[in-house]
Design goal:
By secondary structure, the chain is of the alpha/beta class. It contains eleven helices and twelve strands. The protein has one domain: Aldolase class I (TIM Barrel). The strands form two sheets. Strands 1-4-5-8-9-10-11-12 form an eight-stranded parallel β-barrel, surrounded by nine helices. It has a two-stranded antiparallel ribbon with strand order 6-7. Strand 4, helix 3 and strand 5 form a beta-alpha-beta unit. Helix 2 packs across helix 3 and helix 4 crosses helix 5. The longest helix has 17 residues. The protein is globular and about 70 Å long. The protein binds ligand PBG. The site of ligand PBG has 11 residues, from helix 6.
Length: 334
């Protein structure tokens, strides 16, 4: 930026444009809106169930008959999209996670319920096996190894089944190589060319997923860690390669995950590819903020501040467990 001769104190006083609410609103470079949010929701078996998640106060697992009510509330606040994750009965978990491909599994039931009640809401469903496997990994295993290409076949079936249940956006979160292209081809061959793919492209092997694994019941199951398929938090250039490959394979939208510790990645991805770019403020980030706000150690303003940071870094949209309360807070401001 050129050092303009007049951009000097006292001719220039930066505080002039911060004096009143009116001018602050006028010069604001970024703005949060309910349109920016995707609200992740957990589904559990049963009837009339709304079960709290211990490590995520304020977050619940809903039975399929209860979920539409929650989604209706989100729609009323102007939230355009939700993402569904299942807490799978341990009795239904197998080595190969085949419950993922059951057209009547929890995610499919919930998707049908939501789409019947609120057809205009965008429904995002993960493609990954971890909620369904006895070992808690996102793919099938042979000994200690997570098998890439064998997993792809299952992910394709999982994606098609979810899309047939009404899911309009498949979100591969498994980090197997080639999954976006495989899923794209599988969807197209099944006549589901309109189903879009939001790729978890730069997904890191992060400690911030702990409460999520609690919420979907894969925490105790998980053997080892996910570092042979999720990205090393040390890397940044590698994220660009991942995103580039996913775009070439047919991703309609890309994602960076987690959020707050990876704002630099978000910025690089958006600047490099100019794609619809999303960020996932994950369960551990929620727990961290929720816990400190609930204790009164931080004011609840930090929640919107954290979300605005994603917009500033280049996000077009944000997956956040705060979606509903943030939308309510934004709507109340009007
Ligand atoms: C499944 C999946 C995970 C998350 C979204 N999809 C967990 C993981 O990869 O272990 C994390 C979401 C969160 O922490 O909020 N592959």
């Amino acid at each position: 930026m050129p050092d303009l001769p007049d951009a000097r104190f006292p001719v220039t006083r930066m505080r002039r444009n911060r004096r009143e609410d009116a001018v602050r609103r006028l010069v604001a470079e970024n703005r949060l809106s309910p349109d920016d949010f995707i609200w992740p929701l957990f589904v559990i078996d049963g009837d009339k169930q709304k079960v709290p998640v211990d490590s995520m106060p304020g977050v619940f697992r809903y039975s399929p008959d209860m979920i539409s009510e929650a989604v209706q509330e989100a729609a009323d606040e102007g939230i355009p999209a939700i993402a569904l994750f299942p807490f799978t009965d341990p009795a239904k978990k197998t080595e190969d996670g085949r419950e993922a491909c059951n057209p009547d599994n929890l995610v499919c039931q919930a998707t049908r319920a939501v789409k019947a009640a609120l057809p205009e809401i965008m429904v995002v469903c993960d493609a990954a096996l971890d909620p369904y496997t006895t070992h808690g990994h996102d793919g099938v295993m042979n000994g200690d190894e997570i098998l890439n290409d064998a997993t792809l076949e299952i992910l394709i079936r999982q994606s098609v089944v979810q899309a047939e249940a009404g899911c309009d956006t498949i979100a591969p979160s498994d980090m197997m190589d080639g999954r976006v292209g495989a899923i794209r081809q599988g969807l197209d061959e099944a006549g589901l060319g309109h189903t879009r793919i939001m790729a978890y492209s730069a997904k890191y092997a992060s400690g911030f997923y702990g409460p999520f694994r609690d919420a979907v019941g894969s925490k105790l199951a998980l053997i080892g860690d996910k570092r042979t398929y999720q990205m090393d938090p040390a890397n940044s250039d590698e994220a660009l390669r991942e995103v580039r490959m996913d775009i070439r394979e047919g991703a309609d939208m890309v994602m960076v995950k987690p959020g707050m510790p990876y704002l630099d990645i978000l910025r690089r991805v958006k600047e490099t590819f100019a794609m619809p770019t999303f960020v996932y403020q994950v369960s551990g980030e929620y727990a961290m903020l929720r816990g400190t706000v609930d204790r009164g150690w931080l004011d609840e303003k930090v929640i919107l501040e954290s979300l605005l940071g994603f917009k500033r870094a280049g996000a077009d949209g944000i997956l956040t467990y705060f979606a509903l309360e943030a939308a309510k807070a934004l709507n109340a401001r009007r």
